């Protein structure tokens, strides 16, 4: 092999290697059709009104904070839209059919949702009112104490109008629904009561899963007949009075938003004051207007493109409120808000508010956020239409998503298909974002959906929290403790240590009272500057929280110093894996067999 | 907005050559080619592009390096102690060609283990024949920094390739 040995020694090895690479023959053939497809993909990408994160480093500090706060608000609004549903997604065509024998109804609704970015759970409570033929009112409150926020959404599907009221800010957002998109929409609404009626109706027909009967069971002190239905938005377990067939309780799981909700205390045909459903803004409210369109297939194509562009050109593992979606939304929000802040209109507003509030940062931010509300809503709607389209597909639409890990632009690769309501053929979205119609038989040759399910849950998404989050948490902890790793992975041992620097900053700037702490939490700039480590801690706990018994996790880091060589401190068996992942005290990670794991030091905690 | 048909047609061969040199197979190279042009679309939205050739070669190198780094990580996961120059192929073949192929593969693997910017400057300089100044401009760094990164990259690559020399010597001794 090494015939020219002397040459080998005389030559500089690196230069020879470089020459070897340069001389390595490259196949000449570049099929014209392949180039043509590339041109098509690139043109399509260039024609789409998207994306790219603009850096805000040249902005003034106050502008940067304003941008950050606005982006946070957009993300918050996004979560809200996905859970309770905006007041805007209505199937005008379905409304007439949805009118059943009910004259009116009231109910209570509680929703718990875990934020995928920081792992925190938000609880929302709502009271719902329905008045035939088409009016709904939802009084919603989120958070608690000083962080509590209330809003009222009123919707009249037939009138294609709605209004959102924010009493604290005396703000009214009047909404008009543009039905011109109806043909491209699948119909339906995410507004609670109408959504329930639609899912029950559509769940019993179509090619997807049927309604599953659960038999009789005692619910809230009375016998009820149960059945389960599912859509991309929610799995619902409905319990109905066997005599009257009226619903008594509904459990709603929304894996795509990591949420769980309960609708209960239904009352039917009660007298409701029609003024509750008035679409006129109350006196003294600032009125803003907005026109919204029905979500359509194009919106889903756009959001998939958006996510892929921010995910190294790869489609997300699932469609839902996951990390891939959130990072894409965050990036585009930054860009859009960054652009807006540079407009003369925004600059003028900012100057006025600065002149008015001076060093009163809280006052400035509140006024700024109020002024930005219409902008936020438009931005949220723009990017959430695609998710809403997906959420509105029911089992009758027989949708499948198989794009996880597929490269944007891959030719002839189906990533999503569904059957529009009432259609004979399926609509197929390909990885190059082209869309075609195919007969049902053709879909049988398409790639299989993972586990027959198209939505993502906290537990089956390995990329949501991962071991890197735990490693980062351990690193942050050790940095605070002169290199010593935590005695256990109990939050009571770790969190106080990681929070200590933040607490110190809060104490120095705001004092020690609970009110002072609350004030600090509301200071976005302050929290962005000092709260990062606490956030990392939260993600690490998210990873630990998702550990199941079959993951067989162990911790052995008590009294161990960060950096100790060859000292295993944590090991677990990832779901579906034969081998264990072992984290060492130098925070390196290796895979070991179950037999090797038996030889590891005894764990101090599980 | 750019005339994308013209940009793609004019530069696709160069872009493919740039990535193929580093990744060494057609399928991976084509993935990188697509990613390169999609990235270029984003850049074109932000600012006018003055030199398409330099930009595309820079982006293509970055995408190919991403792939090399992923390969390198996968290799270390399979065998944490694996070294890019550790195992020499014993496959028969034309002696000069086999050695060159092997050397080229070793260098690709070693580049995948370099820190990102070192690898980038090295590739732009050695494979794309860019001067330190040109590479510096693409990476938005000073020419001095580019020269320093290049020097470090070369030293590190020489170390990473050293086992290849030792193994070859042993091979020769056995023969």
What features would you describe in this structure?
Chain A is an alpha+beta fold. Chain A contains 17 helices and 20 strands. Helices cover 37% and strands 22% of the residues of chain A. The radius of gyration of chain A is 28 Å and the shape is globular. The N terminus of chain A is likely disordered. Chain B has seven helices and no strands. In chain B, helix 5 packs across helix 7. The relative contact order of chain B is 0.11.
Summarize the structure.
The complex is a heterodimer of chains A (606) and B (175). Chain A is of the alpha+beta class.
Keywords for this structure?
heterodimer, A: 606 residues, alpha+beta, twelve-stranded mixed sheet, four-stranded antiparallel sheet, 17 helices, disordered N terminus, B: 175 residues, mainly alpha, 7 helices
Write the layout of secondary structure elements.
The complex is a heterodimer of chains A (606) and B (175).
Chain A: H1 5-10, H2 13-23, H3 32-47, H4 61-83, H5 92-98, E1 104-114, E2 121-131, E3 135-142, E4 149-156, E5 161-166, E6 171-178, H6 192-203, E7 212-219, E8 222-230, E9 235-240, E10 247-254, E11 259-268, E12 286-293, H7 297-309, H8 323-341, H9 344-357, H10 361-392, E13 400-401, E14 414-418, E15 426-430, E16 435-438, H11 440-443, H12 467-480, H13 491-510, H14 514-522, H15 524-530, H16 532-545, E17 554-555, E18 568-572, E19 580-584, E20 589-592, H17 594-598
Parallel strand pairs in A: 6-12
Antiparallel strand pairs in A: 1-2, 1-11, 2-3, 3-4, 4-5, 5-6, 7-8, 8-9, 9-10, 10-11, 13-14, 14-15, 15-16, 17-18, 18-19, 19-20
Helix pairs in contact in A: 4-8, 4-10, 7-8, 7-10, 9-10, 12-16, 13-14, 13-16
Chain B: H1 4-23, H2 26-46, H3 52-78, H4 95-111, H5 116-126, H6 132-139, H7 143-174
Helix pairs in contact in B: 1-2, 1-3, 2-3, 3-4, 3-5, 4-7, 5-6, 5-7, 6-7
